[in-house]
Amino acid sequence: MTSIQKALKSHFGFEKFRSQQQEDVVNAVVKGDRDVFVCMPTGAGKSLCYQLPAVLANGITLVVSPLIALIQDQVDQLQARNIPACSINSKLPAQERRSILEDLERDSPCLKLLYVTPEMLASPSFQPCLSSLSARGLVSRLAVDEAHCEDVVRSLNLRHPLSFSTPVFRSNLRYDVIFRDVLPDAYTHLHAFIKKALGDGPAGQGCGIVYCRTRDGCEEVAHRLTRLGVSARPYHAGLKTADRTEAQSDWMQGKVSAIVATISFGMGVDKPDVRFVAHWNLAKSLASYYQESGRAGRDGLPASCRTYYSSQDRDQIGFLIRKEIARIQKKRGSEKEQDRVAVTDFEAMVAFCEQEACRHATISQFFGDGRPDCAGACDFCRDPRVVRAQLEAAARLSTRTGPAQSREPSGPFGFDPQLYAGGRKGYGFERYDEDSGSDKEDDFENRKKEFGNLFRKQMKMRKGSGVKEVFVPPDADCPLREASSQRIPKLTVKAREHCLSLLQSTLDSHQEAAVLEESSDTRSLAVEMEHEVFRSSKSANLYKASVLKRVAELKKGADGVTSPPVGGGENSSHGDGLTDSKPDPSSSSSSSSCGDFLGFTPASQVYSLKRKRVGAGLRGSSNPFQTAAELLSREHDVSGGGAGAWSGAGRDAQTADAPCRPGSPEAGEGRKRKTESADSPPPPAPAPPRL
């Protein structure tokens, strides 16, 4: 007995290899003088082809595998056989990661197989460890598992590799198709199929898988089967991790007869006594269907593979595939070969179900193999009349889809690279399932990311196109103050100049109406008013609204707006832009001084005549700000600052009832006398004039 055969029995418990080809592959890998490329169908024993040589080699075999779940399953199996194996991945606890890295830093590590994902292999955190192992000559082999792509030979730079391939035909699998549309009760039919399939195996042994397209479908089918007497558990990404683990564990231990799952289940699960695989929904491609159905009968005993076909599934899945193709084409702006392949593969699956032909022959021809000897291993070869009767009944209910054309093998060694999960041209059909089977991203994180993208897109649409406007600088003779300032977004110099001209024209019209003094410089006054509005506004809309408010107040000047002085600065008192350069104790700043003497007040102005509550810094205006000069002047007025504070109170009292010109000093004085006479004692008599 050779060392290879001894290791096969002592470490893996097998007396002999599963096939002669598997033994040839192991011998070639152990010899190690050439690279080896292995293409075998599901259940042919590909993993053993690199695991057994790893046990015999000095050093570490680095295994690259796409899924963490697949890696963990193989690591658990190896550790159960006392073979030193571990994995470094993103879900590994920190303490366990440190322990593994410490072992890898030793001169003679205990590990025999180290599993990593492609992302971990390329990560900067793992590169130093890999470089250290390579520099010390501790990497004995590199194995790439589940290499579903055509360019694997070119990517790995394989030089004249030995190629091993196996025909896809498996004589122990019995295929049949049932048209669900013509069944009176599909769930009862599925229950009978499961009972019959499990009855073929030894008593108390055997189990099966029912594949569904959606999570809701998994829940519904599992519930119906349980009610009919079959112990079934659902398995999908919507369940908690603990519930999924429990469901898989019960199924692996034989406590559950059927596990109802999405297509992600079964990847890397090595359970030999799977007696049936039923597809409750149509698979996305014939390649995917072959891989999923191939999880049955790995022990070489007979197993049943059934598809429940319906026109509704066909139409829905076809629509999803075309929609996804259109989305990707719109994103990249061009059409690629994989777009056409996606549709062709789905049409091949439809043809597999609808045509009158041997099921095994259809699969073999799809992958480029010759026609096998079915020998009654499919429903058509057993009884073609039953298949024809189903097709005729289904034709009355739905429109049949034309058969798809098979294509020639296109792989690097004369085989179809989509032999397993659809390969690179498989177009990622798992994205159409609610459970993608990927351990890289959690389902909740995906939904959270999608919502964030949608929210940002909507907010961007609300803000506009986002094109930044170019600021046009002012002319050399621009009269505006701070004309080059861009403190208010989207406010142009042209808009400010327009507002300035609007203010000036209003002031000019009031000067003609004698509201302003003849000596007033309306140009300078308009510039100061515009600048004050510019400094107090934070947006272009608020700026324009404030300017219109000033214009409206100026137009009401005939109703009592006093003459706004030229200039602003620190002596400005009113926050609305109509400011006093300095408080005049001889006149009032009330905007409705003449309303008391004209005898009529419009209803719209009644509220403006109401006395406002005076708070800190509030002088009855909309702006609570007051300068220090105003506060001192007001304190002087209230405390009775001598004859100067009431210098106008003793002049001709009879003029209080006389008509007054709006905005004139006499109007202000008359209103003050009338107000103070009712609420306060008369002011002291003015001092006699000096001679």
Question: Can you walk through the features of this model?
Answer:
The chain has 691 residues and is α/β, with parallel strands linked by helices. It folds into three domains: 163 residues, P-loop containing nucleotide triphosphate hydrolases (Rossmann fold), CATH 3.40.50.300; 236 residues, 3-Layer(aba) Sandwich (Rossmann fold), CATH 3.40.50.300; 124 residues, no CATH class. The chain is 42% helix and 9% strand. The chain is built from 24 helices and twelve strands. It has a six-stranded parallel beta sheet, with helices on both faces. It has a four-stranded parallel beta sheet with strand order 3-4-2-5. Strand 9, helix 11 and strand 10 form a beta-alpha-beta unit. The longest helix has 22 residues. The N and C termini lie far apart (144 Å). About 18% of the residues have low confidence. InterPro entries: DEAD/DEAH_box_helicase_dom, Helicase_ATP-bd, Helicase_C-like, P-loop_NTPase, RECQ5, RecQ_Zn-bd. This is DNA 3'-5' helicase. GO terms for molecular function: 3'-5' DNA helicase activity; ATP binding; four-way junction helicase activity; nucleic acid binding. Keywords: ATP-binding, Isomerase, Nucleotide-binding. Pfam families: DEAD (PF00270), Helicase_C (PF00271), RecQ5 (PF06959), RecQ_Zn_bind (PF16124).
Which keywords apply here?
9% strand, elongated, Rossmann fold, single chain, 3 domains, four-stranded parallel β-sheet, six-stranded parallel β-sheet, 691 residues, alpha/beta
